[in-house]
Predict the 3D structure of the following.
Amino acid sequence: MDSKALRETLRHMVAVLEAERQALAGLDLDAILGTANDKQKLCGTLDSSGVSELDDECRGLLEAAKRLNEVNRQVRNLIAANVSSRIETLTGTGAVYKPGGTGSRAAYAYARA
């Protein structure tokens, strides 16, 4: 892959990461899944690029992608924590997803039965 194609792929990755952020903010499951698929394909393209040297623009795009991905990871974790908190509130228990649990029966005990 030449540097022009690499830059375009990296620009596309940045755009996909921005779209993922919007999908996470809107809790749009279809868009979240679509951006996950797009990211996977782009990562495959980047893995097979065979590029050993990066110019300044590519380094900047990679840094932007890294930052966006980290923000998206934090947003995803906040959403997951919020969902866990709500489930615990609704069920009146704090051990819904925790192995071992805090009660007399371990979480997932029903799955073993």
Observations:
- The helical segments are 3-25, 29-47, 56-91, 109-112.
- Confidence is low (pLDDT under 50) at residues 104-113.
- The radius of gyration is 20 Å.
- The CA atoms of residues 9 and 42 lie 7 Å apart.
